Give the backbone structure.
Amino acid sequence: MAATAPRVALAIRNVLVATDFSPCSERALLHAVTAAHHFHSRLHMVHVLQPGIFTFVPPEAYMGTSEALERALQLARAEAEARLGDVLKRTRCQDLRHHTWVDVGGVGEMLRDFIRREHIDLAVVGTHGRTGLRKIVLGSVAEDLFRHASCPVLTVGPRSWTSDPQSVRLKHILFPTDFSPESAQALPLATAIADDFGGRITMLHVVERLEADAARDRARVITGLQERMREMVSLTAQLSPRMDFQVGFGAVAETVIETASSLGVDLVAFGLKAPDSYVDRLPWMHAYKVVCEAGCPVLSVRGASQGRS
């Protein structure tokens, strides 16, 4: 029998929260502040100015000169820094080590670079849960971080606002798994968080389609899949008596969302494959649907990407 994997020690030293000063980003900030307090981390609050916004300034005002555009950028930076200060005053940051940053450039690229440069261990972002033409800046940023960030990402969706981030206990975590290597890589972090908060984990595997022969013996299928989940835990994480195993049937995203709701979990956590090709986009779309519609925050851990840092 394989040896049980060693317990993972949580070391979340730097927490990033991205903000566009919208209500959902302020909600994400509350979760980031709570995480920073719990893990005694440094909080990095980041706002990224996009140069494209200055194209809307009437040309007669600046005459397109580099000096005028630089001046406009300085004014925008000063305003953003003042707003960051105002936001921090409304949160419990007095006893936190924290730093505010205002950068200029493409939001997703700047945040990914910042995560690498400042050795961020956890990124927190809010999303409106909108897609297509209804998506606004923060929604695009959340999806970009969700897909590409090199650290775990805690996404606070629109339906998780009823939870109180200042009294988060994480007593119950839902961990959906497809038995992939990426899922196995994320499991130790989920179990470490559960242990740290004194919580429990429900592992869930969803069967989308069941062959006719298997459908006649559903109980056997469930037992077999539960055994696979137990084996996965024994090989990759610390097996805890506060862990149970469920099997669902139906559409993956909808089943995960319904299970999270019925169990009243405090967090959904899962591992994700890096989106290296068009073929990989569909699982990511299912996962982001969970982010947008789950009634609690979602922690995602991205697998290593080939050819991408």
